[in-house]
Amino acid sequence: MATSEVILTEAVPSLGAEADIVKVRAGYARNFLIPAGKALEVTPASLRTINHLKTKRAEREARELNEAEAIATKINKLRITMKLETGEIGKAFGSITASDLLERLTSEISGLVLPKHAIALERPIKESGEHQIPVKIHSDVTATLRVEIAAAPKVEAPEEVEEGSRRPRRRDQGAE
Asked: Across-strand partners of 7?
């Protein structure tokens, strides 16, 4: 299998970030990466431009880290209260999942966009009380979300049965 070395000019998922020198299959480099402007062939001239790409990458990573730290500060200050329906003996109906928490967190902090798996719950929350949940914002930044789960008793509506009403017949029951 023929391979070639290329310098990435932008981040490519599952391959690398800008300014990385990676080995890929020759066809992938020739037919996709280079024509799309995502990579350059490794030549003496392109090796000189790698410094520019490295500074661009360092600026981007620093900016992302600063944004992540600002979001972490907001999340650390935040305290969310959620209700969980419980029965008479305190048993929970349903649970609070990571997607519920993510939805509530994005509604509390305007403009917040987090990946689906940013909130790492070992298992869904089924107990009332205070919980501290880690939120991974960046590879180097993790915030702690404080969630207060309040038990709300389930209110059941009484069934009303009219006098003289009878249960409808099933379709497979014929007239007797």
From this structure: 21, 40
